[in-house]
């Protein structure tokens, strides 16, 4: 049969990019009404038409949402003339060219093991665990079709597995396409639709559900995070910059190590990273020494928990993880694990300060701390660091004093290091008042010591005077 796509579908610019890309795995992330589900449905239709006798799966995590949104949109969009048969009890559509599309909820991925797919499509991927995506990826084995692929559409959900897979793990991989679309790009929406949403919702909701920004979500601790500002190109800091190393040791959990150099004006630059799980101390020491090279480290700072002597050996007796690192010549000092104060340090250092000039771009407005692009896990964890939520009377309320304990090992290292007195090697310039002047700090410290000494002298004098008068 003759089918003219233009009679049914006029794709938006981002939808056109999505359809025309030859990438094997594609993600369409956007705000509400940005056309992401429409793009997903048409991609399903186009693949079914282009490759006769294709076999594809369209899924969403729960069945009610699959039925009420994804399937509803499919049958609302797909021209009736293309469909040969629909078996409602099996949720199976057969096209006139023999291609078949099945609709499935994804709560039980083990039931998908026997499928032989040409493609799969996941609506609202952020609702679906990554293991489901991996399961479907392993089912792409239909030999008689010329192109096997997987794709999905979704609202942003912070720095979750979808963000990490497309924007970190496969950022420069031509097999992976990431399309980000704002609600404002859809010219078919009612004129007052976006304006009404902006009036009704808070800033983080607007960034997430209108602008399609994956770095914005409720409960986010570092709300000013901007990868274009906080993340800089890797470089070797000058040798006269003081350098520090921080450690959060784990066995089953990851061991995270970060290197930080202090800019002459007090800015902190985290410039190296080691992050690995299920390895012994000897392995981590080897990696640390390889990464450190000839760097002269001022202080080695670690999670205070590694100094607890909980390990036991018949000859050695009780010993700590810190003792094991010391055996290999790395002598850590205890970091400060005051979580509340550490979070305040994080917020202070990663906020954008309007009175600071960015030392790398010379633009007005700068954080006090930066990361280089090779610190991938720290870049992944910092934006998604969030306050823990409590459910009170059926509603979720945030508890500002306590962070969510998940994917925070690199963040913990940064906390320990920021709580340490990491100072620049030279006097900071006058305009950077938040960092103070080294000479002023010295004189302030001496003044405090003099006052304290005078107070002790007066106290001793009064004590001896009282004794003498008895």
Defining key terms:
470 residues; alpha/beta; seven-stranded mixed beta sheet; 14 helices; elongated; disordered C terminus
Short description:
The chain has 470 residues and is α/β, with parallel strands linked by helices.
What does this structure look like?
- The chain has 14 helices and 21 strands.
- The chain has 470 residues and is α/β, with parallel strands linked by helices.
- The strands form five sheets. It has an eight-stranded mixed sheet, sandwiched between helices.
- Helix 11 packs across helix 13.
- The longest helix has 31 residues, at 438-468.
- The protein is elongated, with a radius of gyration of 29 Å.
β-strand amount = 15-25%
Number of helices: 14
Distance between the termini: 117 Å
> How many beta-strand segments?
21
Question: Largest sheet, if any?
Answer: 8 strands, mixed
**Helix/strand class:** alpha/beta
The parts where pLDDT drops under 50 for at least 5 residues are: 426-438, 462-470
Provide the spatial order of strands within the biggest beta sheet.
3-4-5-2-6-7-1-8
Radius of gyration: 29 Å
The residue fraction in helices comes out at 25-40%
Mean pLDDT: 86
Global outline: elongated
Sequence-ordered SSE layout with sheet pairings:
Layout: H1 13-20, E1 25-30, H2 36-50, E2 55-60, H3 63-77, E3 83-87, E4 92-95, E5 100-105, E6 119-123, H4 130-137, E7 149-154, H5 161-169, E8 176-181, H6 193-200, H7 203-209, H8 227-230, E9 231-232, E10 243-248, E11 255-262, E12 268-276, H9 281-292, E13 299-302, E14 311-313, E15 317-319, H10 321-327, E16 333-334, H11 339-350, E17 353-357, E18 364-366, E19 369-372, H12 376-384, E20 387-392, E21 395-403, H13 409-419, H14 438-468
Parallel strand pairs: 1-7, 1-8, 2-5, 2-6, 6-7, 9-19, 10-13, 12-19, 13-16
Antiparallel strand pairs: 3-4, 4-5, 10-11, 11-12, 14-15, 17-18, 20-21
